[in-house]
Amino acid sequence: MTTLIDLQPPAPSPQPDDDAPRSLRKSLSLTDVIFRANARVIAALVLVITSAIGIFLGYQLVPTLHAYGWRFLTENQFVPGINLIGIAAGLLGTVEVALIALIISFPLALLTALYISEFAPVWLRGALSAAVDLMAAIPSIIYGLWGLLLIAPRALYVSRWLDEYLGWIPIFHVPGGNPRAAEFFLAAYTQSPFIAGVVVSMMVVPIGCAVMCGVFQQAPIGEREAAYALGSTRWGMIRTVVIPFGRGGIVGGTMLALGRALGETIAVLLILTESFDIRVRPLEAGGATISWLIANFWGDVSHIQLSALLAAGFVLFVITLIVNTLAAIIVNRSRSGSATEI
Amino acid sequence: MNTVVTPAIDLADSEGYSANPTGARLDADRVSAWFGTHKVLERVSLSMPPGAVTALIGPSGCGKSTFLRILNRMHELVPSAKLAGQVSLNGADIYAADTPVTVTRKRIGMVFQKPNPFPAMSIGENVIAGLKLTGTRISRRAQAELIENCLQRGGLWDEVKNRLGDAGGSLSGGQQQRLCIARSLAVSPDVLLMDEPCSALDPTSTRRIEETIGTLRDQVTIVIVTHNMQQAARVSQQCAFFLAEQGTPGQIVEAGSTKDIFENPRDPRTADYVHGRFG
Amino acid sequence: MTNLASAGPPQVHMGAAVGAPAEPSDRPRAVTAMSTDYRLTLAGSLIGSLALTWLLYTQILPFSGVVGFVICWYVAYVAMFATVTALVHSAPIVIDRLWTAVITGAASLVALALVSTVVYIVVKGWPAVHHLSFLTQPESKGSPTAPLTQGGVLNAIVGSLIELGIATAISLPLGIGTAVFMVEVGGRFATVVRTVVEAMTALPDILAGLFIYAVLIISLGFQISGFAAAMALTVMMLPIIARASDVALRVVPGGLREASLALGASQWRTIWRVVIPTAAPGLAQAVILGMARAIGETAPVLICSAPSVFMNGNPFVNPMNSLPLYILTGVRSGEPRFIERGFGAGIVLVVLVLILFGVAKYIARPRAAGR
To answer: Strands B38-48, B26-35: parallel, antiparallel or unpaired by DSSP?
Structure first.
């Protein structure tokens, strides 16, 4: 026999309501208290060290602007000997070299990542991924050697060709180049931002490629099969499924590569020669980036000029920080966000 | 030894039977399949005629899905996969060297267990995605007509007709599956393969899709894999019972009209399965 | 009426019964993605475009040199391939093959660049490096213009290793400790630490060097020395190790921690005996990859140390040379013998990085389930 449930609410109970949460004493053992305190101290120490750098660099803006005024940012010449300090040319050059590197490396990184994840035979994929990681680990001085001594002498012919046939476009023009002369003036092309950008692009391709490749391999197999089942070719499937899925990784990886290219020192140091003109002619010899300025002049500056160098470094740091943060945000928001590790 | 199965189905039994079905005939002749050295199908032969729904039933793991994927050349996407035997669409071997695989897959469509609309496209774009992927160009107006036509046949038109621009992933599971059916229909296949299309769905969506299958039957040849016997009894006119006994590759134990399989099975294992004594 | 197949396991038929139709052999059939037509089109386009480029190259086209030839050949090949395919096949297939050609070409270009880097370094550096004295004698025993059998890079190798050792000794406990704090203790403070640490991974390497130079050397009066360079390397490594360790610790499933706590262990015991051993391969990989990166850093050591030629085992007194700095000095000198030695040092550096990299990958290799 079943029981009937009384659906009337019970009469209010005269006793106090004891359905309230009870407070639990935080009972940590002594070892845990010590451990947590230690961990906190270590983290605080690391926080102090790392933020000290940012604060110290930023603080250098104070004496610098005091000594040089806002012309510090607008003056293009940087000549410590006569106390003429300006980083405008350096800023422009940094962006110029990084952009050239990006233009060259972006398609290469994207296509190589597609090759590794979609076209390479399965047994080769692991080896190729490891090879890409290894490329990223090779020190920049090695790429600097390769770039300066193997690539630069050949790349200047590309510069000359661009000047000869596309020189009517201002960006490709090299005054003093005279490409059609029988013995054209090599020096006008050698140590240019373009060649520096080519070498830097080589360094950043593996960074972008590794991120993109990891993301492409996460594209869901259900959607891939759906595309094939409709009669799609492999490229159709890539275009419909893999690339839309990997958008976050593509952008994020590229921005990470950009951040690296902005801060690259050694390749630029070896290849660029000094020039402080504000101009956008990447094929022409001469240029400056902020890291180049620092690496060139660190030993020859007075105390206040050192502050200026540090302030310039701070500006560079802020730029790379913004780029990297944007990259992380874009990747985290995208579908492939959880798969990527920036 | 399996013989080539050509059951004499009395299709006049089934309701809504159309005298002129427009699908194509699909024949599998002694198909075997391997993954690496592991054999998973043993000389399976089956004829799937137009105008009928053929159900592949049997416990899980006996090769039904593998057999289905061989029918539209999806099996070979797995690197270690191999097959033997012949699959013919209206008499022509689909594995012949001069037949592009993309053409075969266009003519033999597939709906998967887990609905997989393209999330980067809207509902309308999803429906005609197959056109873009196979390089078929039609006018804007023809596109709109095709979208409406396919969504009607897929049983989804009324629910989405006012929001064709919404993202493909914004629908419920059952709606997504009907969208996938509409998408498959848009490339005008002769055969539609369905791999447990309702196993991830709730009962209401399942019923809607079974209704859809009923209405599509005389437009495309349908082959459906299902581990739900009642569903097989409801939607199909012909059944093939797959079984893989311990350690052996899968085979068809018995095949015939649905009525006979369920009411008059000849093999005791078939009888056990359809009466739910094992599954 | 159903058709019944035989009951029982299938039998392998070695021969057909007399009079029965021959069975298709139960052997796998070839299903190739690359049909004969594809192979022929590919080969034909390659050869045809080569011939075409050869004929036209110097006469008509405005290029010269090997690089130009290869570019022209590639363009002609792709054009020819596309045209021939379009004669027979539909648009999607043509586009698919075109893109396959482009993608494969790009990947080959990148592979070629990488291989050329390694080969170039090895070829140019071999004359220096195959002398044993190169590895066992410091620079002071020779001079930049001396023959390659005199003097070597031992001081640079020692300097690199000492600087790396100091930097690792500091950044390993601090980095992993910070990661432990961020993951295991957590809280608002941990979020702040995490944000700052992630931000600092964006620091360009030259700024790490400049910071140490300004603070330690100028303000605090330290000498330019191996220690200063090691400090600069620490500044670089610390955020990277902290962040990678953070990721490695977060991957450890929470269920493991709960199981340990449920047995009555304290949090510290849980971390020390369960979490860290589980995360150990990931942590080791993080540290070793940080080391591989640090050993190749040139910019920080450029500023905080100097290319001394003497053997110096004391990081606190006198400058210390290191491999990247040695290479940079050699290349910038313009002196051919010195450049050769620089290449030799480059080989040593690449080998060291390779060893570290290989160890890291080996430690973090996927293990069989059920370890």
So the answer is: antiparallel
